[in-house]
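Example record

One chain of 160 residues, shown exactly as stored in the release files.
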Amino acid sequence: MEIGNVLIGVISVVAVILPFVIMYRKSKSTERGLVKNLKEYANKNNFQLDKVESVAHLALGLDQKNRIAYFSEVEEGVFDTWHLNLSDFNICKVNREVREVDYHGEKDRVTHSLKIEFYPKNKKDQLASFLLFDEDKDRMLSGEIQLANEWVGHFNALLN
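Predicted structure tokens for this chain:
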């Protein structure tokens, strides 16, 4: 009788913990893949990667010597990576679009999209941006706001 209770307890604990372990390992694998992809991209383009940080399905990187900003995202196993030459831009800002929702009779502000926008030196050139979050595509924020605020500081330090 005791062995049956112990066995049921162990199986219950494993059944509860296992999904969290699997999700954690998958997210870490995705982050490692993003960083590896950024390093390969930088090497292929004869740049270097001095600083890199990843959150959820995206990564940002920086080459301080060449003043290059990197962005990489993964969707369904496909990596999309590109870079911007910071010499072409004046300033970098966080653009957080919010919408109001009615939650139990109170108004609440929900982030709809989050971008890091780069404003060009030449006013005729187009605005460039890294899309970090889109409510229509992503379910919920997972550190993107903090990432955006931190990296805007890194990018702006090289713009001036």
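Notes: The radius of gyration is 21 Å.
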